[in-house]
Amino acid sequence: MRYLNLINNTLKNLLIENDDLFIIGEDIIDPYGGAFKVTKNLSTLFPERVITTPISEAGIIGFGSGMSMNGKKVIVEIMFGDFLSLGFDQILNNISKFKWLYNNIKMPLIIRTPMGGYRGYGATHSQSIEKHFCGIPNLHVLSIDRYSDIEKIYRDAIKTEAPTLIIENKILYSKSQKKIEDLPVHDKPDIICVSYGGVVDICVESSEEILQEEEINVSVYNINSLNPFEKEKIVNLGKLSKKFLFVEEGCGDWGFSEMCNSSLVGLNDIKTITIKGPDHPIPSAKNWENEVLPNKKRIKEAINTLYKL
């Protein structure tokens, strides 16, 4: 099953099982079914509980938070992850704080959104801005990839009854879903590569090619929980290898790579290399975009460099 269809099927199952679940967002009703068709057919099956909204991310998130505070389960779709900035105040100063402001109130609210580049969408539609939400207390931030148990992640998020931001990488929608066992993992890896989202695929392809070309064993691991961060997983990986490659689409400091590196502090002889997105806007030209974002050439060069250290 494709990544896209698996998410759609998960949402359908959740709507069937939860009479008090609503999905809201821009252009999500049929026949359009959302910008990436994740909600296709859901409004036809559940016309009273799949609701299209005006173009106001702050309004959509605010509406969803009000519903969840009143006992409803809510899944909010934000059309592009870049537009989360328009709802930042609602997330930072409202939904993440209501647990404490309103006597431990439950908020079964999921905000789901496509994120990332590689599709030539330009500076304001290809960013990876999830790091700006990862330091917010009481906001769970999750990233799903082709090796994730997507249905379990969504079910667990609903059960937590706490606000959750789920990142879906847009380049994965058309690809077939895989299992965690499909990740290339070696008993004695020369290098461990850690990533999340759509870049996991590029890391897997790079590791498979470098094994054939250079006979370097690279194990690839995905991270699903960005906040709270899976620090213990990184620490345990430090027992398998001393060489790490961290890959992310996000740019600048204070992000995924910094969390990975800080998790390894205190372990002896650790060597790491980080690959990130550019410290400038994503270009609209797709070939240039592919050059500045993490790609197989950059990853394989980093693997070769690490191997020689």
Q: Can you describe what's shown?
A:
The protein is of the alpha/beta class and about 300 residues long. It has two domains: about 5-170, Rossmann fold, CATH 3.40.50.970; about 185-309, Rossmann fold. Helices cover about 35% and strands about 15% of the residues. The chain contains eleven helices and eleven strands. The chain has helices at about 5-15, 40-45, 55-70, 90-95, 100, 150-160, 200-215, 230-235, 255-265, 285-290, 295-309; strands at about 20-25, 50, 75, 110-115, 140-145, 165-170, 190-195, 220, 225, 245, 270-275. The strands form two sheets. It has a seven-stranded mixed sheet with strand order 2-1-3-4-6-5-9, sandwiched between helices. Strands 8-7-10-11 form a four-stranded parallel sheet, with helices on both faces. Strand 10, helix 9 (about 255-265) and strand 11 (about 270-275) form a beta-alpha-beta unit. Helix 1 runs parallel beside helix 6 (about 150-160), helix 3 runs parallel beside helix 4 (about 90-95) and helix 7 crosses helix 11 (about 295-309). The radius of gyration is 20 Å and the shape is globular.
**Which structural class matches the secondary elements?**
alpha/beta
Order of strands, main sheet, comes to 2-1-3-4-6-5-9
- Number of E-type strands: 11
What is the CATH H-level superfamily of the largest domain?
A: Thiamin diphosphate (ThDP)-binding fold, Pyr/PP domains
How is the CATH topology of the largest domain named?
Rossmann fold
Helix content: 25-40%
